[in-house]
TrEMBL record:
<keyword id="KW-0597">Phosphoprotein</keyword>
<keyword id="KW-0150">Chloroplast</keyword>
<keyword id="KW-0934">Plastid</keyword>
<dbReference type="InterPro" id="IPR003231">
    <property type="entry name" value="ACP"/>
</dbReference>
<keyword id="KW-0809">Transit peptide</keyword>
<protein>
    <recommendedName>
        <fullName>Acyl carrier protein</fullName>
    </recommendedName>
</protein>
<comment type="function">
    <text>Carrier of the growing fatty acid chain in fatty acid biosynthesis.</text>
</comment>
<comment type="similarity">
    <text>Belongs to the acyl carrier protein (ACP) family.</text>
</comment>
<keyword id="KW-0443">Lipid metabolism</keyword>
<dbReference type="GO" id="GO:0031177">
    <property type="term" value="F:phosphopantetheine binding"/>
</dbReference>
<dbReference type="GO" id="GO:0000036">
    <property type="term" value="F:acyl carrier activity"/>
</dbReference>
<keyword id="KW-0275">Fatty acid biosynthesis</keyword>
<dbReference type="InterPro" id="IPR044813">
    <property type="entry name" value="ACP_chloroplastic"/>
</dbReference>
<dbReference type="GO" id="GO:0009507">
    <property type="term" value="C:chloroplast"/>
</dbReference>
<feature type="domain" description="Carrier">
    <location>
        <begin position="59"/>
        <end position="134"/>
    </location>
</feature>
<keyword id="KW-0276">Fatty acid metabolism</keyword>
<keyword id="KW-0444">Lipid biosynthesis</keyword>
Length: 139
């Protein structure tokens, strides 16, 4: 004896002026001998908008890191420093990066392991590491 069922889930996301509709259908047959046959299909009625990736760190942390980087590298006010900005794009060499890390440690009251500090290449990476270290310090 077999039991057969089908379910449908519809989701609708509103992004600016366009609407994206997803429909998920899950037909399944369950047989008395314990075997199950499942199949899934995902249908999209209109193209999805571009994927945007955001920084996991808080905006205020990113801004503080940007200020410290700006100060350590003596950047002018018109030079743009964002979460995705690489230190090398700003003209930083390895000594500058060490000074940036020292400034960050002092500002946030943390200590970065040398191996972890070497991995930092962007403002975002620095902010995320800082938040991780601050959270570990409070845990």
């Amino acid at each position: 004896m077999a039991t057969s069922f089908s379910s449908s889930i519809s989701m609708q996301a509103r992004v600016s002026a366009t609407t994206t509709r997803f429909s998920l259908q899950k037909p399944a047959s369950i047989f008395s001998n314990g075997k199950t046959n499942l199949s899934f299909s995902l249908q999209r009625s209109v193209p999805a908008p571009r994927l945007a990736i955001s920084c996991a760190a808080k905006q205020e942390t990113v801004e503080k890191v940007s200020e410290i980087v700006r100060k350590q590298l003596s950047l002018s006010d018109d030079q743009k420093v964002t979460a995705g900005t690489k230190f090398t794009e700003l003209g930083a060499d390895s000594l500058d990066t060490v000074e940036i890390v020292m400034g960050l440690e002092e500002e946030f009251g943390i200590t970065m392991a040398e191996e972890r500090a070497k991995e930092i290449a962007t403002v975002q990476q620095a902010a995320e590491l800082i938040e991780e270290l601050v959270q570990q310090g409070t845990a």
